[in-house]
Amino acid sequence: MLLFYFGNRMQDETKFKNKDETVKENVSKNQNENQVFKTNPQERNSERKNDEISKKYSSNYEIDRAKGKTVVLTFDAGADGSRLPDILNILSENKVRATFFLTGPFCEKYPSLVRKITEYGFEVGNHSYAHNDMTKMSNEAIKEDILRAQDIIIKTTGQDPRPWFRPPYGARNDRVRGVLKSLGYETVYWTIDSLDWEDNMTVEMEKNRIYNNLVDGSIILLHIGSKTTPIILSEMIKYFKSKNYRVTDLSGALR
């Protein structure tokens, strides 16, 4: 039985990554700094405060795969929304679910198109506002960016994107995941990156990349603006079904 609840969310059929991807800077420099005895009380207090912040905002869990005979389709928003209607129609015609990760500017640029996502009954997630590398941002800057995007997504779609958040560029570490958790979000990564955004991507290259890496519970990263994905999407869905995969969204796979 799969268990999933918010707050202290529990899942017994979800595979999480448990790893520290914090960027390591100059190790020898850090070692030398650690050898310096801090005698300044203000400096010691500052260190304690930083330690408390690190402990408060820290999480090493993220969703990168679902268990069972499922395939999870996820679409990230980019600069181009012109192919979104085709994607929505294909998903609906094939009677499958998908999760759409939206940025604030995408919602602002294509409000009527974005509304169709929820009108078709699909779920949305948060993909940030400025699409910056959050490992290089302060906790407060991360919060401000996420909440700004969240507000726009809710106003545009009428749907709260929580609990799903996909970090821009996939850049994340324990601190970023911790800040996301404090805002009610789960960090969603992927099992297969289709690379469908690359200029030299062809339909055959994309199909081979996805089919050759397909495993039970695959979360597939696709892009709304891809020139190749809409062409092969229906064929891919039929292929997944022929292999007895249930094609669904994050909620369908994890709740």
From TrEMBL:
Domain NodB homology: 69-248
Signal peptide boundaries: none
Region (Disordered): 26-52
Stored Pfam families: Polysacc_deac_1
CDD domains in UniProt: CE4_NodB_like_6s_7s
GO biological process: carbohydrate metabolic process
Comp. bias intervals (Polar residues): 28-43
Keywords associated with the record: Hydrolase, Metal-binding
Gene Ontology MF terms in the entry: hydrolase activity, acting on carbon-nitrogen (but not peptide) bonds; metal ion binding
Designated name of the protein: Polysaccharide deacetylase family protein
Organism the protein comes from: Thermodesulfobium narugense
